[in-house]
Design a protein that fits this description.
The protein is of the alpha/beta class. It has helices spanning 30-33, 48-53, 57-66, 84-87, 89-101, 116-128, 142-146, 186-203, 205-213, 215-219, 223-243, 259-268, 275-292, 298-310, 327-341, 364-379, and strands at residues 14-17, 41-47, 71-72, 77-79, 109-114, 134-139, 156-158, 161-165, 173-177, 347-352, 355-359. The chain is built from 16 helices and eleven strands. Strands 1, 2, 3, 4, 5, 6 and 9 form a seven-stranded parallel β-sheet that branches. Strand 5 (109-114), helix 6 and strand 6 form a beta-alpha-beta unit. Helix 12 (259-268) packs across helix 15 (327-341). The N and C termini lie far apart (66 Å). Bound molecules: nicotinamide-adenine-dinucleotide and zinc ion. Zinc ion (ZN) is lined by residues 147, 195, 259, 275, 279.
Length: 380
């Protein structure tokens, strides 16, 4: 027998900036700080909605590169923003084609600017071309700045299933530039808050209480509170990956609290319901279930539900309607969740605010009752 054993270290910075590409406002050379060598090539992949919302962006980037020690390869590749970027392999193909045409190699950089969906698609293309090209992310939504963009995963949907194709590929660096968030719709702004509530619920009661006491300010997109929310949430994510199981080889995935039903709901809605919206519903559903199981107290359940309502999250969707019989489809999300991970079914629930607990089985009947309770809660 020959035993192979090696370790690979991964490290990447997450910077917080403002108006990154505007040289008048931002004098710092973060690319150099990241250790990027002079003459390196950059290929840009940008979310179409970010491009339309920022008329100046492409020219600012071009100007930035004219005055820099780096080279911009070809024109910016624009791919449709939102989940559609992950639902069609053509978009990945478009990025791969540009990689080939512009001779982007392993010493070059793919820079993705966009929401979580575009980052996932671009990160996937970067990971599979030449077995992995370095990639930099500029997340442009609250959700991607505090959650998906700072993590190590990418992927696209395939066979109608969320993230069926994808890899674990840590980014070279992440740059959370606040100025991008200004053009975000209220709907997408809100979506990011649900992932922050998630980390509060499973890991950090103080953070949950921070969100609770600042809910009104978040409804008004208060900048200072939002910056704090993003920083803390990103920090918890990064720490979690470093101390846990970043490439998810075990059964446990605590950061997927509320996600088994969320992913299914997104799919049932034809991806009309946003990830953050579905996660808010999914977390409440699992909290109601945990309460029915005797794990979570009535009082704590009420706090969770109230916070979601205060932040105007919808907790019941027609796709979950019991009468149509579609509820079984929602429940089939449990099985799909297990299949995606492999191994034993492991679902994170909460036993207290700030404390998650893993369970390995879900009582279907009780979960259906939880869905009914969610509907009643909305009827009231
Ligand atoms: N890789 C991971 O670990 C991970 C984790 C969580 C979620 N995700 C994925 O992230 C995706 C959700 O990401 P999201 O919540 O960022 O939504 P999104 O990428 O779907 O973006 C939402 C909408 O906002 C637009 N947009 C983005 N930035 C904008 C800006 N600055 N101004 C105006 N419009 C803007 C997009 O074009 C899109 O229409 C899902 O596909 C989800 O599966 C991945
Ligand atoms: Zn999520």
């Amino acid at each position: 027998v020959i035993l192979q054993n090696f370790k690979v270290d991964f490290a990447y910075p997450v910077y917080f900036t403002d108006s990154f590409f505007d040289r008048e406002k931002n004098k710092e050379d973060i690319f150099a700080k990241c250790g990027i060598e002079r003459g390196s090539k950059f290929l840009f992949v940008i979310d179409s909605n970010v491009v339309s919302a920022n008329a100046q962006l492409t020219s600012l980037i071009e100007k930035y590169f004219e005055l820099s020690q780096y080279e911009m390869a070809g024109e910016v590749v624009v791919i449709p923003g939102g989940e559609s970027s992950k639902n069609n392999f053509d978009h990945v193909n478009k990025i791969l084609t540009a990689i080939d045409q512009h001779k982007i190699d392993r010493h070059s950089y793919i820079v993705a600017i966009g929401g979580g969906a575009v980052l996932d698609a671009a990160g996937f293309a970067a990971a599979i071309a030449h077995r992995g090209i370095r990639h930099l992310r500029f997340p442009t939504t609250v959700l991607s700045q505090n959650d998906s963009g700072v993590g190590v995963k990418n992927g696209i949907n395939y066979f109608g299933k969320k993230n069926f194709l994808g890899t674990f590929a840590p980014p070279f660096a992440v740059i959370n530039d606040y100025s991008f968030l200004k053009t975000l719709s209220d709907r997408d702004f809100r979506c990011g808050i649900s992932e922050a509530i998630k980390v509060g619920l499973i890991k950090d009661k103080t953070f949950f209480e921070f969100i609770e006491s600042n809910a009104e300010k978040l409804n008004h997109r208060d900048e200072e509170v939002t910056r704090q929310l993003i920083f803390r949430c990103a920090e918890i994510h990064v720490q979690h990956n470093a101390s846990g199981d970043p490439f998810e080889q075990g059964n446990s995935r605590p950061l997927d609290y509320g996600h088994w039903s969320a992913h299914k709901l997104e799919q049932l809605s034809g991806f009309n319901i946003r990830h953050g919206e579905a996660v808010a519903m999914g977390m409440c559903l699992d909290a109601v279930y945990a309460n029915k199981k005797g794990l979570l107290s009535d009082h704590e359940l009420m706090r969770v539900v109230l916070l979601m309502k205060k932040l105007q999250f919808k907790l019941f969707f027609p796709e979950m309607d019991l009468k149509s019989g579609i509820q079984n489809k929602l429940l089939s999300g449990l099985q799909e969740f297990r299949e995606h991970l492999g191994g034993e079914l492991t679902i994170m629930l909460i036993e207290k605010i700030g404390k998650g607990i893993e369970v390995h089985e879900v009582e279907e009947k009780l979960m259906l009752e939880a869905i009914v309770t969610m509907k009643k809660g909305t009827d009231n």
